[in-house]
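Sequence in, structure out. Go.
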Amino acid sequence: MQKQRIIEIIKNNRILFFVLLQPLLDVLAFWTQSESGTIAGIIRLLMMVGVYIFAFYKRRTPSMWLFSGILIFVFGLHILNSFRIGYTGMVADFQYIARAASMPVLAISFCALADDVHKQNQIVKGIYLSAFITGIVIILSAATHTYMPTYVLEHLGISGWVTENNRCCHSDILSSLAVFTAFGAFSTRVSWIKFILPLLIFAAMITNATTSCYLTLLAITAGFPIFMALRSFLLKKKNNRFTNLLIIEFAVLFAVTLMIYPFTPRCKMEELKNAAYNNVEQKFVEDMADLGYSIYDMTLEEKMSDPVVHEKLTVYYAGFISHTVESMRYRFGIDRVIRAMDGIISAEVLDDARVMKRLNASFIFEDSDFQTRLFGFEFGNIHHAYEDLENDWDAIYYYYGYVGIASYIFVTVYLFLRIIRILILRFRESLTPLNFTLFFCFVLQIGLAGFSGALLRRPNASIYLSLVIAQIWYWTKLPSVENSSSL
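Output:
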């Protein structure tokens, strides 16, 4: 009897347990990592396939057929085109597709499965509990000194029990969880939890030390109090005493976040990087000045046509290329890099791996035929895994071409149009903290996808974007009795 009751609980809360597994899988990945990958990655792949099959079996809606078709179209034509020109790394490309497809596949699945308020509540509860588990993990890893530093060489920042190649990805996860934690502060009725949650958000985001977390902290501590105050004004409905106190707490934390920046690990990391950049750049400028050249005042053509400057500039660029995307040096030549960068000597730009990886991908893209630019080049064209693009939107554009990026933009715009539509039809009813949280988190995640490489291509972070999309999809259905109080 007890066994049947447990099975029934799991059956009725499938989505909740699925979400809860996510931070636990991150911990499993940390403790089982090896050169061949992690057990967690295989489990996530099986879960993605399983959830989609279950959703397809249970809810074959027209929308599911449509968006599944778009997905098959984008990745299918990419594969066919890669066969056309000759695959050089089919296995690696298929593995990459599995990672990139995880977010849209799960979004489609949850949009179909989370079709009532109970299931929507499971998503929110699951994210709450995931935030709780993540917080406990960070505390335990810090207390036992077993955490992965956010910046390994400098030993700055605390990422918790995450693998080294998931450090930046972890900051995106924290950002998503922090938004829902802020919502939890405004929605809980337990006063001590209400006021401690903002402090926990503050501590987690500051100690992580990434730019993503710092900016997210500023956005949360400013955005939520502004929304709650504006909502009160527009609805002509006074906030209760606890809500007003919470608004003040968030506002104070916003001010504190700005004031303590010079003392944060994030600032320390910036100082270290800037000092290194300035030293390298200044030495080059001085060396050129000793030879009688004012390098800052020279045009690109002057730099390329003068044999001495060209030689020195080539060596200068080679130093940056060697530890960002070394294959560019032999594949495209340093001159092409110099011209593409307009001959700049800014060490901060040239040593930015994001910039150089994007430049490498752009060269591959430019040298491809029109069909390949339509459907993207295979991942095997990136000679080393560490040369993988660090920005999601750029990666979708180069790896899946004009068709791929157009599809992602289409779906994103479509979701925004659904939000606008329901706001027009039910403006006053839509001004709820949950709706603001969903919209805020979605915009944040879309922004982070342009800044990092996890929200569209790493299943452990992209799952949270999938869940937010599923919630927005549900609450932006045409107004009905059932969904009249939320987006």
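Check: The chain has 22 helices and two strands. The chain has a mean pLDDT of 92.
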